[in-house]
Fold this sequence. Notes:
Bound molecules: adenine, zinc ion
Number of domains: 1
Shape: globular
Helix content: 40-55%
Amino acid sequence: MTPTTPPSQTLAQKAAGAPKSELHIHIEGSLEPELIFRLAQRNGVKLAYDSVDALRAAYAFTDLQSFLDIYYAGASVLLAEQDFYDMTAAYCERALADNVVHAEIFFDPQTHTERGVSIETAVAGIDRALADAQQRGLTSKLILCFLRHLPEADALATFDAALPLFDRYPRMIGIGLDSSERGHPPSKFERVFEKARAKGLKLVAHAGEEGPPSYIYEALDLLKVDRVDHGVRSIEDPALVARLADARVALTVCPLSNLKLCVFDDLTKHTLKALLDEGVAVTVNSDDPAYFGGYVNANYVATIDALKLADDEVYTIVRNGFEASFVTPGERAAMIAKLDAYWHAG
Ligand code: ADE
Ligand code: ZN
């Protein structure tokens, strides 16, 4: 069947209305400036900016590190379980408005434990908001990420402290690796990923965002990840692209993030379409939507426009998001059936 778009509806509108997944969203990156200020006031936290506008004006990033410095400062307002609940509930509202039906959400426990906030405080608040959102049609998973700029010993201690939580919170199904990529290759975290694999957890890692293709090989060969977050620099290595395509290793691509962090100086130069053409299972996601100018629909709309994606290409990307999600085969089939009913209607 050839998918068609009714003339009354643009492809961007069709994508916006489609049931979608989101597989790459840092919940701390969904903290909008207004909420940062509200939580700062509630918790008596002093910020380096004296207004929402001044904070927003600082969102002019030159690379990943320039963003991370502000992102960690923003997260400093999160102290109580209710703060994590409020942040996550706000994200769920935005996701539901974008017709996201399934989200796999990252959180960074080490960002909070270093301020004396326990992992359980964070998980309890996030999980409670996700349970509430599930009643409204958004299913979800939670992925605990390690900060790669810190030593592996810290990641191992964090993993050990979090172990009981994996059993207590069934939504928490995996681990990831984020923060400053350059100089912190996946090989640094081989032991903690091995421990997580032995426990049967799902494994993901940021690789090939700013780092070279060799980091993607390490994520695959040493960490044995199920998905690669970003992975856009894989295009520099044709053998790697062929391997990703053959093995159906999904890339959770975040186009507006890549633009804002100067991975590409223009969205028309983004490698997503070239990777799609090579058969790589690319997906579209928002990364840190409060900082990068848009949630998942904004990412679809901008990417469709910049890369002149066709109807069947957008369908494939949305479908890839369900294919690559960590759900049961039955849940996956139901999500794809909903997508098909929507996409091929009328
Ligand atoms: N933490 C939050 N967003 C990130 C990104 N885009 N890359 C690495 N670490 C992150
Ligand atoms: Zn990310």
